[in-house]
Structures are given as C-alpha cells and as structure tokens.
Design brief:
This protein has 81 residues and is mostly helical. The chain has two domains: 1-35; 44-81. The protein contains four helices and no strands. The longest helix has 29 residues, at 6-34. It is rod-shaped and about 105 Å long.
Length: 81
C-alpha cells in the first residue's frame, strides 16, 4: 500500500476544496437561471397566452354556455316550424 505524505494529503484536500467551491458557484448560476420566472415567461409567452385563454373560457362556462345557446336555438326553430 502506497502511503502519502502529509504535504500530499494537504495538497489533495486543497484541490478538492477549490473544485467544490467552483462547483457551488456553477450550481448557484444554474439555479438562478432555472428559477428566473420572468425569463421563462418571455420564452414561452405564446403557449402560455393560448393556455390562459382556453382556461378562462372553460372556467367561465364557455362550453356550457355555447351548448346552451345551440340547444336554445334548436328548440326555438322547432317551435316555429
């Protein structure tokens, strides 16, 4: 078994500390980019707007209202005929 000198061990520890510090800095940058909701919003603006429009239509009873209007028109036509 090859043994290392205390100086080699210290140098290895220092090298590992530096590598860890660099990794932490890179990770902070990646996390900041991923969690930037304004950037995500700008990048996906068109699909989000379409989704918001569809969602608001459905929530406001758009489908039920549209079905009711069509049913009402059919019933009115049958009464006139």
């Amino acid at each position: 078994m090859a043994s290392r000198t205390p100086e080699e061990i210290r140098a290895s520890i220092q090298k590992n500390r530096e590598a860890l510090a660099l990794s932490v800095v890179e990770l902070r940058g990646e996390v900041a980019e991923i969690t930037d909701w304004r950037k995500q919003l700008r990048a996906n603006q068109k699909p989000l707007m379409i989704g918001a429009a569809v969602t608001s239509f459905v929530i406001s009873g758009g489908l039920a209202g549209l079905t009711g209007v069509l049913t009402f028109r059919r019933a009115r036509r049958r009464r006139r005929a």
